[in-house]
């Protein structure tokens, strides 16, 4: 399994060299992120991001402080001049006095304003009245503060300067004073943003995150035929796993885990259905053989995909495996087999792209293989061949059409026709191969299939005809036992069909002395009345050994022979024992027991229980549900205490299920009927 799937999981290694031309176009087998290209694009996106700046509120405060200190200095100089006048100091010439005031103002001004304001500007401000000074001071502080609250770069300060000037010209002051204040305002309206390293880093990271990862897509052409193998192309080939890489164990490990899980589930199912016992080794070998056949067929068909004949995949006889499992191994193994075949199909039919999964093919194989056993019925092999093949072909056609419609592809009628033919062919091929392989697998592994059982169950089988004609009562009894046995075996997960067919033949030995068994006497005198207990016992017990000999003579499968040999086990013939004991106290109990062996399969044990129950229930008058339940439980209890189930691994829970199934079936058979009044003349 591992070896067969590995080439479709692990891409084939290419032998290419840098600088040389590619001999053929090379396609990516999987989708892989090209992290190197992605990283380059991220770096390019980050470089395109501009430096980020943030508002610095301290700059605004600093400029307002300079403006406030300027007007404070002006007021102090003006106040100092007024004080000198009150003290009666000799007045200086006006020009000299103004020059002195200007010097005092400059001495108290910050360096920034000293550089911006001329002596004339300061003189103009000094000459202003207190009213005008209050107006320009309040306006300047408020307007500069308003403009500096917004983020502003160096280029954006020009617009702010214009706005300051426009609003300043609206103030009711002299033009000369406006010009002087305009210089102060413009000099204090400066850029108030600083480089923000953290914000810049965030923007760059955001730009990187916005870059979509770059992928080399599954099915993408990496290099065209005759194209030169560049370093970048070589890197891409290496990235998708097409070049030798000693460290690439992912495919090996993944497939190993998948195979391990599959084997565990198969083992669990085989154990659950009791197929790991020594006597069931042929079932395990046949199951392995079936899996190998299916893997080989799938692998062979998948090779055609390299030639682009992808439609041929639908020709695979997906129903073959599950029908063989249903007929030869165990019908409940069909589900795990279908799941396994589905996984194989999705890997093998990956349309030439290794390492990928073809989910539509997986769905096709899953549903087709699950449906196939549903069309198997209890008919002749030839009839079953035609019926199963036809129904499976029709089912596959509908299934393929559904998948094509889901794909929403554009198909021509010719393409639809090809898909329909391959799907129909799949169903017919599966049916033909099933009928052809079953006999070889049966003979090769000494097994009995459902098909063989169906043949043996035919009323036209010579041995069953013999029972019907020579011992009709026994025939009817066997039919009733078969119905009971099948239902009971189904309830505990045993092989119901095997139990049914085994029940048909379990009493075939009675045909040697049919009238010595009560169901065949039909009003005649009981022949045992003229025999001794020992003679009667010998005839009764002989029906088992005679039946086994007859079955072997007619080459009936050993599973049926075993049921006939074991259905009585080593049970005790109480009636004839106690009758013999009336005449001879030294009679040995062991002489009145069946020779056995005890039931060695669940099917043989169930047939034995059903045989006793069916014979005994006819003596109940009336057969009410309560009486039937008590009788069934009593018979099972007697056999259990007698150790008749010690070789067949029947659990107490299973015995309870058998009891319940028998009671339900018998209650349905012997249900109470309405007693209609007789007609009066």
Report what the structure shows.
The chain has a two-stranded antiparallel ribbon with strand order 1-6. A two-stranded antiparallel ribbon has the order 2-5. The model has no long low-confidence stretch (mean pLDDT 84). The chain has 681 residues and is mostly helical. The chain contains 28 helices and six strands. Helix 23 runs antiparallel to helix 24 (558-566) and helix 23 packs antiparallel against helix 25. It is 63% helix and 2% strand. The chain is elongated. The chain folds into four domains: 17-34 and 214-242, Alpha-Beta Complex (Molybdopterin biosynthesis moea protein, domain 2), CATH 3.90.105; 53-195, no CATH class; 250-447, Arp2/3 complex 21 kDa subunit ARPC3; 457-669, Hypothetical protein af1432 (Orthogonal Bundle), CATH 1.10.3210. Pfam families: 7TM-7TMR_HD, 7TMR-HDED, HD. Keywords: Membrane, Transmembrane, Transmembrane helix. It comes from Priestia taiwanensis. The chain crosses the membrane at residues 249-266, 286-305, 311-329, 334-353, 384-406, 418-441. This is HDIG domain-containing protein.
Features:
2% strand; Molybdopterin biosynthesis moea protein, domain 2; 681 residues; two-stranded antiparallel ribbon; Arp2/3 complex 21 kDa subunit ARPC3; 4 domains; elongated; mainly alpha; single chain; 6 strands
Could you write a compact summary of the structure shown?
The chain is mainly α. It has helices at residues 2-9, 35-48, 57-86, 94-108, 111-116, 119-127, 130-148, 157-169, 175-188, 197-209, 231-239, 250-272, 281-302, 318-328, 334-348, 359-371, 381-407, 413-445, 450-456, 462-470, 472-492, 496-505, 533-553, 558-566, 574-581, 602-617, 625-641, 652-669, and strands spanning 26-27, 32-33, 53-55, 193-195, 215-216, 221-223.
């Amino acid at each position: 399994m591992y070896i067969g799937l590995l080439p479709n999981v692990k891409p084939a290694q290419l032998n290419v060299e840098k600088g040389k031309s590619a001999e053929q176009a090379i396609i990516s087998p999987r989708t892989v992120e090209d992290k190197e290209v992605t990283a380059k694009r991220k770096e390019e996106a980050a470089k395109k991001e501009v430096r980020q700046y943030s508002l610095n509120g301290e700059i605004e405060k600093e400029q307002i402080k300079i403006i406030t200190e300027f007007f404070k200095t002006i007021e102090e100089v003006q106040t100092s001049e007024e004080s000198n006048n009150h003290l009666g100091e000799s007045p200086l010439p006006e020009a000299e006095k103004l020059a002195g005031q200007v010097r005092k103002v400059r001495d108290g001004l910050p360096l920034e304003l000293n550089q911006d304001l001329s002596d004339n500007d300061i003189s103009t401000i000094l000459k202003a009245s207190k009213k005008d000074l209050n107006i320009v001071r309040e306006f300047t502080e408020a307007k500069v503060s308003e403009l500096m609250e917004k983020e502003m770069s160096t280029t954006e300060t020009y617009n702010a300067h214009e706005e300051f000037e426009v609003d300043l010209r609206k103030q009711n002051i002299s033009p000369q004073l406006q010009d002087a204040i305009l210089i102060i305002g413009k000099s204090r309206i400066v850029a108030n943003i600083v480089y923000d390293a953290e914000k810049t880093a965030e923007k760059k990271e955001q730009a990187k995150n916005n870059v979509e990862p770059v992928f080399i897509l599954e099915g993408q052409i990496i290099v065209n035929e005759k194209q030169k193998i560049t370093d970048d192309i070589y890197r891409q080939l290496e990235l998708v796993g097409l070049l030798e890489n000693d460290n690439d164990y992912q495919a090996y490990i993944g497939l190993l885990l998948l195979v391990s899980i599959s084997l565990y589930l198969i083992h669990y199912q085989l154990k659950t259905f009791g197929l790991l016992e020594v006597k069931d080794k042929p079932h395990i070998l046949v199951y392995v053989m079936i899996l190998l056949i299916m893997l080989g067929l799938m692998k062979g068909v998948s090779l055609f995909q390299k030639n682009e004949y992808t439609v041929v995949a639908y020709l695979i006889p997906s129903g073959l495996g599950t029908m063989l499992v249903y007929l030869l191994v165990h019908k409940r193994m069909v589900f795990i087999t279908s799941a396994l075949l589905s996984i194989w199909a999705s890997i093998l039919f990956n349309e030439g792209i290794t390492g990928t999964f073809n989910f539509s093919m997986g769905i096709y194989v899953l549903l087709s293989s699950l449906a196939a056993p549903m069309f198997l019925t209890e008919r002749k092999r030839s009839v079953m061949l035609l019926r199963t093949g036809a129904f499976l072909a029709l089912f596959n056609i509908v299934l393929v059409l559904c998948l094509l419609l889901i794909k929403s592809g554009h198909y021509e009628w010719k393409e639809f026709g090809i898909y329909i033919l391959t799907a129909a062919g799949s169903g017919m091929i599966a049916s033909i191969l099933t009928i052809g392989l079953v006999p070889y697998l049966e003979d090769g592994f000494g097994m009995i299939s459902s098909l063989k059982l169906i043949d043996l169950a035919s009323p036209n089988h010579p041995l069953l005809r013999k029972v019907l004609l020579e011992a009709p009562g026994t025939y009817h009894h066997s039919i009733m036992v078969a119905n009971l046995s099948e239902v009971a075996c189904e309830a505990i997960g045993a092989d119901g069909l095997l139990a049914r067919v085994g029940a048909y033949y379990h009493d075939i030995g009675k045909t040697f002395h049919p009238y010595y068994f009560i169901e065949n006497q039909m009003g005649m005198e009981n022949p045992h009345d003229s025999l001794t207990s020992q003679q009667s016992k010998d005839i009764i017990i002989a029906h088992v050994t005679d039946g086994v000999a007859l079955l072997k003579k007619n080459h009936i499968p050993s599973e049926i022979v075993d049921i006939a040999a074991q259905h009585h086990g080593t049970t005790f013939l109480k009636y004839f024992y106690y009758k013999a004991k009336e005449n001879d106290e030294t009679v040995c109990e062991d002489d009145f027991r069946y020779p056995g062996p005890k039931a060695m399969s669940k099917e043989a044990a169930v047939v034995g229980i059903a045989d006793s129950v069916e014979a005994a229930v006819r003596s109940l008058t009336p057969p009410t549900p309560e009486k039937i339940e008590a009788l069934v439980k009593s018979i099972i209890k007697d056999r259990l205490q007698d150790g008749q189930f010690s070789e067949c691994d029947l659990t107490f829970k299973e015995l309870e299920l058998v009891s319940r199934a028998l009671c339900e079936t018998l209650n349905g058979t012997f249900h109470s009927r309405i007693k209609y009044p007789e007609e009066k003349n």
